[in-house]
Amino acid sequence: MPTPSQTPLPPSLLATLPGSHYTDPEVFRLEQERLFEAMWFCAVRSADLERPGAFRTVRVGRESVLVVRDRDGGLRAFLNVCRHRGARLRLEESGEVRRSLACPYHAWTYALDGRLIAAPSLGRMPDVDRAGYGLVAVGLREWLGYAWVCLADDPPSFEETVIGAAVERLGDAAAIERYRVRELALGRRVGYDVEANWKLIVENFMECYHCATIHPELTEVLPEFANGYAAQYYVGHGAEFGTDVEGFTVDGSAGFGRLPEVSDEQDRRYYAITVKPTVFVNLVPDHVIAHRMFPLAVDRTVVECDWLYAPEIVASGADVSKSVELFHRVNVQDFAACERTQPAMGSRAYRSGGVLVPNEHHIAIFHAWLSDHLEGARARPGP
Question: Which residues lie below 8 Å from residue 133, measured CB to CB, with a gap of 6+?
Fold first, then answer.
């Protein structure tokens, strides 16, 4: 009997990545180096850092990055490493300092713009150039109300690799701007600690072949998803709400009035955008849902999900629970499926991988993109 790797595939099926690509620490190390540390990475919502001195630390690849609001009100990003002996400047996930960042080990102290401004006995070392021992800065751009950072010495074009993803998906550069995401307010944030490889989460988001099986609430609101149709793949197409559905809520009841600049063509439709490697943006007429993934290990990914609404909705204390509950259930269902899949990635039954049916063929584009960026890196053989 031929093994799975020897069996020729019929035209309806395409091969997936081999299972070891989801379990091999060396593949994950390459992804950290050549994806997360080399591309633009969505780190923090800008409005979370309201005042000068507010900071957040985030894991980007193998590095800890410190994003801070400086004295002039701008955002800065630095490697979270003291230049003296390498201690972490901040261990907390978030917080606020008054005027400077002081290392708890030897008290080397940095201004909020990264300059070295003080250190014990520094006055007795006149040959030390303070400018040369400031914090190591990393690239930072703001878009959609989030701070995106890039650790590369020569970052790729933000317009092509990040904004271009929205244009590629929606077919119109202005389409996403009509949602005014930067001006929206945070209505709810939920964090998920998923025991699965980050690629399984991306692949899950890219297809709806599973929707009829595990998303009863979503397919009630978006009936075409029950047919396995991956609306997020087709340029310019948004899945239309069901005839009797009033809003993007867990029971299809009315949500809120559509955002002011959302067009008639975008009304009563759901659009999904993947910004590779780690961001999903979901657009509906009255709110926006943003997912940011933080891959921490080959089999562990933290996902932070924000529900964003018109500022007056949040300020009024309006009940957003029905719209939050819909996609929260989708998240829980999706992540459970990914966790159900992760253990099998190390099985000999999946040594050569699985298959993609026609409704999933576009996932092969993601796999090709991975191969291009990893320069043909191969996982070690499985069991």
Answer: 83, 84, 116
Length of the chain: 383
The backbone region for 311, taken as left when phi is positive above 0, alpha when psi lies in -120 to 50, beta otherwise, is alpha
Asked if 259 contacts 241 with a C-beta cutoff of 8 angstroms, the reply is no
For residue 246, give every residue at least 6 positions away whose Cβ sits within 8 Å of its Cβ, in sequence order, or none.
Answer: 252, 253, 254, 255
Inter-helix orientation angle 363-373/198-206, to 10°: 140
Half-sphere exposure at residue 51, Cβ-oriented, CA atoms within 13 angstroms: 7
Per-residue burial over 31-51, b if 16 or more Cβ lie within 10 Å, else e, is bbebbbbbbbbbbbbbebbee
CA angle 202, 41, 206 (to 5 degrees): 15
Between CA 27 and CA 312, with CA 292 as vertex, the angle to 5 degrees is: 175
- Which CATH class for the 41-143 domain? mainly beta
For the chain, the domains span 41-143, 172-373
Quick one: average pLDDT of 23-39?
98
Q: Choose among 97, 135, 103, 98: nearest CA to 119.
A: 103
CA distance 97 to 112: 9
- For the full predicted model, state whether its pTM sits above 0.90: yes
Q: Quickly count: other Cβ atoms within 10 Å of residue 189's Cβ.
A: 14
Class of domain 172-373 (CATH, top level): alpha beta
Count Cβ atoms below 10 Å from residue 289 Cβ, excluding itself.
24
**What residues pair up with 54 in beta bridges, in sequence order?**
96
pLDDT digits (tens, 9 = 90+) for 119-161: 999 888 888 888 899 999 999 999 999 999 999 999 999 999 9
Q: Which tens digit of pLDDT belongs to each residue from 229-276?
A: 655 567 788 999 999 999 999 999 999 999 999 999 999 999 999 999
Distance of CA 147 to the CA centre of its chain: 12
